From TrEMBL:
Residues 165-190, 281-387, 628-674 are annotated as: Disordered. Residues 170-186 have a biased composition (Polar residues). It comes from the Eukaryota. One of its GO terms (cellular component) is cilium. This is Aste57867_21667 protein. The gene is Aste57867_21667.
Length: 805
């Protein structure tokens, strides 16, 4: 595997200050390619490789402040039809104050001649005034399939089929990376440098990269000569140079920004820091220390080199498998999942940069255990985190006062190992009563950590946050904290925990569900608080399938264990089922969960549940009634209900519940008639037709179903009830619509000012009171039954599908 040369052949647009042709130079110290100022997204960038190639790695180095929220990758062999490979998600870089550049590495195995990058909307920050996206460098590694001579001819005549880009502004040759320039004169394929080293070069300036390569080659030579003492010394020096090189890259970026802002005092100060740091990297002639001398790098506090594994500075990249075309899935293999990365090493990722403040208090020799992680055997060899900006330290004063500056720095680190270790250490301190501050303050700090940790993209960090949350629960119970203060502190973590019920990884989803049930069973939280978060909707958009399935599973367990209590009433539960169309959902798993929940509630309140089942079709209602009768017949008579001290609500004994649940599962397994009912029935309009096989049903969706419509902007067929949200959130042409702040409807940008100035629109009704039809703009009844009455019975006058009937 070697580095593959390429040339940019087209782009949607470019900023004159950052033309796309800069990417041809593979320079990582400049601005790189920039999209036009205030442009529309997505923007596309296409590169042509030196010939037909088998691509194994793609490296994308993002700008430090002009960052895309998402980058889609496409491959093609003829530049006519591209196959979507997947996408990369980038961080906002707010934690590093927009000084660090994120390097993304994608591992694939596919043949291609052209690679297209689709750049989506940028992150908004104070340093990106014109809403631009920047790509500093792109590296492609793999093997050229064509003959070398033929490939050279193709590259020399690469412009025969494309319009060439404007010439690159003159730059000094000293600024170019010596081993990665694409010019035909300097490109050599005799001894290609390893691809991993090429990606490493993208993170450093040319001088530092050359030193690192020299030391790496010397280390390999020492290993070949079995001089392991020298190899060990060179390894230490190599890691120190990498750490300092990352710091140099950040300082260079800060200096360029200061010059652009004409802040010359800051530029001079940064330049002095760069000179001092470069002086500390000074080496004797020959570049590599002799075996009789120690590494010459001298610093007030040397970073310790990890022996077990090097913690990656950036999290592993992922491609969303669910959104990739099947053809692309067969052609390409994706990076390991987060679970795999937790137990493995990332050789392409850089180690943390040299810490300034976090490590001054602790200078320790190589191999000594890290005293901050005592009690965590697998973390005692973890290195020091990078320093935090002073502004972030000031904002985190309360956390620093409770857990100390070192663990606070670890918690905010870009390295997931540090974040994970910080949460595990705080969990240990809480369990062993090592924190002597006010219990309310300790709980508030832990709550902040859990809120951030649960939403972390690395699965191991999320699991550690779940453990910390459980420790918080025991801590609150041990100190007998008042319920109101505990619930107030736990509200934000509960929001993140409920969101994790839709997590794709089963292990995380199961752990979160178990934790939520423990919180519901505790005296300081209780089922009412948990249920209120489960039923809470943070947006008008319909819940994704996995999220809805996870919430319904939790509701089923809550009702089964605790019965009906405040905020877990029959109205709230059945209303949640109806709002999410669970009774007639296209997924059988969702329909079965809705029926199981209804059976559990029927066992508690009996026929009082009937008014909430009016939306069921007659045959479906018969199945529900059969399930109710079967559950009551097989359940032993319940003893007199017991009053609980907390809610004074009646609830059947747990033993009876277990029997009901067992019978319910058996009944669901034995009777699968619901599948036959749905086999020839539209799940939206309830139309039953024996001709509804899969193809005929698709045709019905596409052209006939009165509950669906085709978006005029993108052509997608969607539910009429979600058309307004689709135009504002999901539609490819969503930039053509804006939401009216008064009525909440999607208004075209062209008429938006006129619409708002007229000031004659009515506010959108509350969800529990009604809906508004996006076709006729009339207010209709609430929930799903309101939509069905309007679209199927009275028939919306502006629905083209019923006008044709």
């Amino acid at each position: 595997m070697r580095k593959i040369r390429y040339q940019v052949v087209s782009c949607t647009g470019e900023d004159p200050a950052g033309p796309a042709s800069l990417l041809n130079e593979h320079e990582n110290t400049g601005t790189g390619y920039l999209t036009p100022k205030n442009c529309d997204y997505p923007q596309e960038l296409v590169i042509e490789l030196e010939g037909p190639c088998r691509v194994t790695q793609i490296h994308v180095l993002s700008h430090q402040s002009h960052i895309a929220t998402k980058v889609e990758l496409y491959l093609s062999s003829d530049n006519a039809a591209f196959t979507r490979l997947g996408f990369l998600s980038l961080k906002s870089n707010k934690e590093s104050q927009y000084t660090a550049r994120e390097l993304k590495t994608v591992h694939i195995d596919a043949e291609a001649r052209y690679i297209k990058f689709k750049l989506h909307q940028c992150y908004i920050n104070e340093k990106n005034l014109y809403s631009q996206v920047g790509i500093v460098a792109i590296n492609v590694n793999g093997e050229v399939l064509a003959d070398a001579a033929a490939a050279e001819v193709e590259l020399n005549s690469i412009s025969h089929a494309h319009v060439t880009l404007p010439p690159t502004p003159r730059r000094s040759q000293a600024s170019l990376l010596p081993s990665s320039t694409p010019t035909k004169v300097s490109m050599s394929r005799d001894k290609p440098f390893p691809a991993a080293a090429e990606s490493m070069d993208m993170r450093f300036d040319a001088k530092t990269a050359a030193k690192i390569r020299d030391i790496h080659l010397a280390k390999e030579k020492a290993v070949a000569m079995e001089d392991y003492d020298q190899a060990k010394r060179l390894k230490v020096l190599e890691e120190q140079l990498k750490s300092a090189g990352l710091q140099l890259a950040r300082l260079e970026a800060a200096k360029r920004e200061a010059v652009a802002n004409e802040d010359y005092d800051a530029a001079k100060r940064i330049k002095d820091e760069i000179v001092a740091l470069e002086a500390s990297l000074g080496m004797p002639d020959g570049g590599v220390p002799s075996s009789s001398s120690d590494p010459p790098l001298k610093k007030p506090c040397q970073p310790r080199v990890q022996q077990a594994r090097v913690a990656p500075r950036r999290e592993p990249d992922e491609l969303d498998m669910d959104e990739r075309p099947l053809a692309a899935q067969r052609q390409a293999s994706v990076l390991p999942s987060d679970d795999d990365i937790v137990d493995g090493d990332d050789d392409d990722a850089p180690p943390p940069r040299v810490s300034q403040k976090a490590t001054q208090a602790e200078a320790r020799h190589e191999g000594d255990p890290n005293p901050h992680f005592q009690g965590l055997p697998d973390c005692e060899q973890l290195g020091d985190p990078e320093a935090l900006p002073d502004s972030l330290l000031k904002e985190s004063a309360e956390m620093v006062a409770v857990i100390g500056q070192y663990l606070t720095t670890c918690f905010y680190s870009n390295v997931w190992n540090h974040r994970d270790a910080a949460m595990r250490k705080v969990t240990l301190q809480i369990q062993e009563e090592e924190l002597d501050q006010d219990p309310h303050v300790v709980l508030a700090v832990a709550s902040t950590m859990v809120q951030s940790g649960v939403s972390d993209r690395i699965s191991q960090v999320a699991l550690s946050a779940v453990m910390l949350c459980e420790a918080m629960l025991h801590f609150a119970e041990l100190h007998q904290l008042d319920i109101d203060s505990v619930v107030s502190v736990m509200n934000n973590p509960l929001v993140q925990l409920v969101n994790k019920l839709g997590e794709a990884q089963t292990k995380i989803r199961d752990e979160v569900t178990t934790l939520l049930l423990k919180l519901a069973a505790s005296d300081v939280i209780g089922p009412s608080v948990v249920a209120s978060h489960v039923f809470r909707r943070t947006s008008k958009k319909a819940l994704p399938l996995k999220s809805l399935q996870g919430r319904l599973g939790l509701v089923k367990a809550l009702v089964g264990h605790h019965g009906l209590v405040a905020d877990l009433t029959v109205e709230s539960v059945m209303g949640f089922l109806e709002e999410n169309a669970a009774f007639a959902h296209q997924s059988k798993d969702i329909r079965e969960l809705a029926k199981a929940i209804s059976v559990t509630i029927y066992h508690t309140i009996g026929p009082d549940i009937d008014p909430f089942l009016k939306s069921l079709r007659p045959k479906q209602l018969e199945e529900y009634q059969a399930a109710f009768e079967s559950a009551m017949e097989t359940s032993p008579p319940s003893p007199p209900p017991k009053k609980t001290e907390k809610t004074n609500k009646t609830a059947p004994p747990r033993k009876a519940k277990a029997v009901v649940q067992q019978d319910e599962d058996e009944h669901e397994h034995d009777t699968d008639s619901n599948a036959s009912v749905e086999e020839f029935t539209c799940p939206f309009c309830d139309r039953h037709d024996e001709s509804f096989d899969s193809d005929r049903l698709d045709q019905h969706f596409w052209a006939e179903c009165p509950m669906l419509t085709q978006c005029k902007m993108c052509g997608q067929v969607i539910e009429i009830s979600t058309l307004n949200d689709h135009l504002l959130v999901e539609c490819e042409q969503k930039h053509n619509h804006k939401e009216c702040p008064r009525c909440g409807e999607a208004i075209t940008v062209k008429f938006f000012d006129k619409h708002t100035n007229m000031n004659d629109c009515d506010p959108m009704p509350a969800p529990e009171q009604g809906n508004r039809c996006p076709l006729c703009h009339d207010d209709i009844g609430p929930r799903k039954r309101g939509w069905k009455a309007h679209l199927l019975q009275t028939r919306c006058p502006n629905n083209p599908r019923t006008q044709q009937a």
